[in-house]
User: Fold these one by one.
Assistant:
Number 1:
Amino acid sequence: MIRRSLFVAAFFVALFVPALPALADEPPALSGKPDASEAAFVRAMQADLTTRFATEADARRAGFVRYTNEDDTGAISYANRHWTSSDVHHPSQLWYDAHGALLGADYSLPKTGAVRPHAFGLQPGRWAAFDAHVHYVAIDPATGKKLYDKFVMPPQFRAGGGDPMHPTAATLVNLKLVPSANDVATIFLFPSIWDVSIWIKPNPNGAFADKNPLVTPSTH
């Protein structure tokens, strides 16, 4: 679900801060509904992931970690920090609603050039490119509450004495983003990737649509 959440983030970050984990490019406009070739992959991933990851608890047990707040589509994103999807069984991200029910998944491939992938029978235009950045989940020292949607771009991370390829909480302390390394629940590199987002929950607008009219965000 990173494509949708980062389109929103891009607007606010462009106004208020100098850098963001943005789309390196925006894919061409395509119908949200899969074509005949794509439909086979969509059916397979929906059947497989619904069986294995029906709830947020299933994702956590499999090593997925939450790193976002609920976005304007009603999705909360979890990443397994493995960014090469080899087949339908290996999404890089799963998204759940506020009640822990599965909504969709992202598949990703390393971005090593400017040509979009020809993979999984999907149209190349389905793939969006993302720049590398370091994501982290902070802990509010006063309340113990986890704080999501936190990130640092590689130049800033290096300026704090850190290596984005091997990020540690100590660099966030150096950058004065957290008071202590103990106030970081999760930190990981989100590398430069090609990414595709697909709804698992049935969507009248199609599995590739930005929003699903059957999903109402809990904050709305």
Number 2:
Amino acid sequence: MTALVVFIVVAALTGIALLSAKSPLRQVTREQFLQQLAKFLEGQLNPHSQEGYENCFKITFAYDGEDCVFEDLEQKGFKDKVYAGYLKIKTPNKLTLTFTEKKHSLKIRSDIFLASEISTQAVEKRVRLQVPEYLKDLNVTANDPAMANELFEDKKVAGVLKKMKNVNDRGYAFLSLGIIDGIVTLEFHEQNNFKPNLASLRADMASIEDYLGDMVIIVRKLNQLLKQ
């Protein structure tokens, strides 16, 4: 019995010591993580070349035959610097489809809806954006309502959109995914309570392939719609 008690105490102390020790993952710097991610993706890591993107980086790589880029951006916050990651896949499609908070985007939605609803070639044939029920608490805008409607009807695409939905601290829904001029973009947030987030990506680098797989579903559908 004494030996058992000693074993339990030693095991408990060992566990505490391991938990208290600094994880190797936490010691990896931002630059080291990006170097490791570039190697994992078999891509090229470079500083961001656009003006105004100081201390920002991007990794260009190919995945499943698609041209992809991961951007790691440093931005100015209210007090400290904040960081965000953006995973992007470019398509030849020109669809713009955005999902934002309803409360702050009513004017923008009105402008885009009027521009996209009325065709200069066929005014009499108007198409309204049919927002699915699971996106009703978001402000959804599209420059091509007909194409957006077909995208929403795809069950696999719907599954991806549902997975990327978040609710912020004020109780407003938002989506981490959007499409701008045919570029499918997924944001990795600095806040750990949103999905996806940078902390989870740094802890499990291979998880980026799951997100890429989800994005490719949308990319394939966009390519299919473009050929119709």
Number 3:
Amino acid sequence: MISLFKIIKADLYSSQTNNLFRLLLSFYFNMSFRLLLNYRVGHYLHNHRGIINNILIMWLKKRQIKRYASDISYQAILGRGIKFPHPIGIVIGVGSVVKNNVMIWQHVTLGSGGKDNKLYPTIENNVKLFSHCQILGDVTVHENAKVGASTLVLQDVPKNKTAVGIPAKIL
């Protein structure tokens, strides 16, 4: 439980302000932080299952979908310093791994490759995923890479490169 509070505190301070008033405003009104807080609590409850926790998980999931129109699986793994500049319509699937300091804009999908391919993407440190991009299957977006808006990624994106287009081409 203490580690959960440490992670939430780190998420709150990642807004890069030490002003108490701004921290309180972020805690109560920042949609990006609130979506991440919903995920953190849901992930913690998912890892400590019980009858009461299952009911709380269902309530949190309903709230996540209703308030943010987003569906972030509590089984996915999100690192520290994740930012959602416009947290609407984000879908992160069950087996997805998102490491540290990643920015995810609106309507981004991290999903499986389909019925025969149940593997999910891995997003490494310092990656930027711009609006409406879809990353599907067993794909790795390596450190410091960028995925352009409305891009369909079906292959790995190398370190420090940018992927754009449908299907993605590496620049």
